[in-house]
Amino acid sequence: MSDSYSLLILPGDGIGPEVMAEVRKVIAWFEDHRGMRFDVSEDLVGGAAYDKHGKPLADETMAKAQEVDAVLLGAVGGPAYDDLDFSVKPERGLLRLRKEMDLFANLRPAQCFDALADFSSLKREIVAGLDILILRELTSGVYFGEPRGIHSDDNNPDNEGGRVGVNTQRYTSGEIRRIARSAFELARKRGNRVCSMEKANVMESGILWREEVQWVHDNEYPDVELTHMYADNGAMQLVRNPRQFDVIVTDNLFGDILSDAAAMLTGSLGMLPSASLGAKMENGRPKAMYEPVHGSAPDIAGQGKANPIACILSFAMALRYSFDEGQAADDLEAAVEKVLADGVRTADLMGPEGGTPVTTAQMGDKIIEALGAR
Ligand code: IPM
Ligand code: MG
Q: CA 239 to CA 258: how far, in whole Å?
């Protein structure tokens, strides 16, 4: 009998609950067929939490997230919450989880499944076989730097409108070194190459970033190939020749932007999973939260149109990184690949070549079927 794995599920807003329902099916399948045991609890985050508690993450939910082996999050946000005060916006719930769990390493793999290569906005020959990993620093930088805010610009009479908006890009050497170590560790298990991206040509924090990543490399990981690139060039290279990369390591804001671009290379934002990892807990597992890279997609919520694959692949990452169930993760990923190869398509994946159109729930069922056939 294996250990029981504790999971906190936070479906969130928009399409979050629909895609998470498919993950629930996958969890049940692994319990029924692989003898795994999951101790699953569910709670609210984002707008759903705001509706009930007046804030996007209740303190009890935060406390629960600190205790479980892993958190699985759907998506947060929606037009109903656009006018809320910044401090209670749905996104703040997500950022609080990342910050308080100290999930500094955000893994965003971008893999192009062969069946979807024609689906990318780039030509097949540029994206076929693509397999890169963007490692985004997730708990610092301009997302959290102080000072921040919007205030009046009293001393500057020439400023039309009279206000200033301020955010601060701030990185300590320690923060850079720990994310750099994660990048080199991950690279050793892949293609052994790291490309670090910043804007050292205009930002001091970028200079520090470059120096510290190089320091970690020279002192601890000289066997891994390291290159540096300005992030704007990196964005261009990602769409010019994305296969030149193996692991890309970058800061919070550049990572946010570059990972969206990388996602589109693979055909659909509905395909991309992510893992956010922190330090090891007492039981040896890393603090962890898994979430699809896509957002809450309010325009299609509740219509059975959403693609559950990103969320299901996020669960596969949980199997791999939190539970050490590498074989189960491989099987789940292979089941997804099989279903795609069979032409099963949610609306976002429906191209000119056609295929079998399915709803969110049918996609989940097909993946379970393919799992069963393995
Ligand atoms: C992401 C999202 C979030 C971010 C939002 C929802 C706060 O875009 O996870 O990429 O900017 O980090
Ligand atoms: Mg983003």
A: 10
